[in-house]
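Handout, page 2. Input:
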Amino acid sequence: MVTTVESGPWGGIALGGDDFGVALSPKAVLSMPDQFIMYEGGIIDASSLGFMQVGPNGDVNPSFLPERVTGPGGFPVIAHGSPRLYFAGAFTAGKRDIAVMNGRLAIVRDGPIIKFVKKPYKVGFNAGLGLKMGKEVLYITERAVFRLTGEGLVLEEYAPGVDIERDILAKMEFKPMISRHLQPMDELVFRDGPWAY
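Output:
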């Protein structure tokens, strides 16, 4: 597996925060235009992208707010060029206190801002177009995993320790479909081990 960052690094260890766009010891660094040509051309096999809002049919608003001037960055190009999309982020936003204790997710205080909304402010990923293109799309949070289908979002997994009605469905502006094979997320995700950072 070779990871990339939209600013050009291939491989290495991608940094975050103020250092986003930089990678330690990359195998190569392309110019940003060349990197985007590669993304648009379908060289990537899978992408992990963040989200700010998700709508009932799976549309994603990556970064747009009514009171701020922001852009989507490389989000639209990466989302368009990748056959597998894994949108990852916190289920709610704002000040919260969520921890992992004894192999379970503990939501002490939830974020007050709902991110799964009836109508995203702007759309950076059009789910209908993604489905027509045959994309595999998952929405992964600390407490729930949803899959995109032609009928909208389907809740497939939930974190051990959460109450599905109280901690997931009540924190959404719409009701997703529930999979007939709904199951807990893998317990390894909620355990300390040599893979933990």
